[in-house]
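Follow-up to my post from last week.
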Amino acid sequence: MKSFRFWATSGLFAMLCILALAPRTTFATGSPRDVVRELSDAVIAVLQEKNLSADAKREKIRGIVQGYVDFSTMSRLVLARNWASLSDSQKAEFVEEFKQHLSVVYGKNVESYNNEKVQITGDRDEGRGDWTVQTKIIRPQGGADILVDYRLRQIDGSWKVIDLIIERVSLVSNFRSQFQEVMANGGIEKLLQLLREKNAAGQPLKS
Amino acid sequence: MPVPPLDQPSAPAPITERDPWEPFNRKIFWFNDKVDSYVLEPTAKGWNFVVPNEIQTCLTNFFYNLRFPIQTVNDLLQGKVQRAASDVGRFFVNTTFGVAGFFDPASSVGLDFQWEDFGQTLGWWGVGTGPYLVLPILGPSDIRDGGGLIFDTAASITPFFVNGYYLFAARSVDLINTRAIYADTIEKAKESSIDYYTFVRNAYLQRRAAMIRDQEAATAETQEDLYHP
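User reply:
Got it. Predicted complex:
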């Protein structure tokens, strides 16, 4: 019993030392809250530009989002247990197609932008290196506010978005269950083919 | 039945998408989708064209106000005395100052609306969802929430005051109006999904789980599996 207490206290002491001495690189790039603020400010700035075509705006926003969202982590979470069964080239293709799918889907919102503002309403530590930032999209032209939570994870020293929870529905969970359904019936090839078709059909970007 | 502590909802199980009747559910889903594309969607489009947004909001307020008995009963069944008081307050403020409930001045004085129903109450008591269930016309549900719907219909006082035809007309207006308000959302959901049936099932179950917990993210309990698979 005594030795347990000894190890527990000295272990705790050692941990405190490490924590105290550890360089604060983890917060060098700003808190998760700052990251979400930056991201939404940057996107809204583009949306408010008057002399840009919708396509040009989409292209610009795509560039911005790329720097904030970790699509490969998101893809891994979406495929979950199935991820390991993919070959390297399938993984790479999936990340690309999934990213493209999200940009096609969300890119369509560019036209319907109507002076919405983003308000950060809170944030919380989720443990194991994850953080959630809660926001609200305020619609001055009427309509109920939209709740959007960002799940962030520290990857290579900076906070990256790994999931969006829109009106209490997690995007990762939602796509995971859809993709599981498709893969259960046709495997990864079927899923990739569906994504390719969908992306080709709904392509808002020229190419 | 075990009595839950009043200050804390009993921890719900992480969402599981149990769908043993999937082939049957998919048939009903297909049927609903047809009804939607041939009847509801076109009507809702016309509605959106004719009825201004402000009026649509007024109608939503009106129907929400009529939910007052259901809201209050379920607040109390979940031990939320403050919310029950707030819902009673809402009803009086909105019925009088809000002109029979068409406006919602209560929200601007801090009595905000938070949807409650018997399915949520059961969930709060710790009853699981049971298998997923698609109801004709009414759409996604599960055994628990479908049962809850029967209770809520019984708890609603309107049928005692209103003649059946008017009630049917009112329900139809409510349905079309709601469909019209969510027209864009539904269109985007269809476009963005790879498998729309699964999209709806997952979204429904996630949202319901979050509503039972009265919190904004549906992911707290499912974190482990979701974010560290």
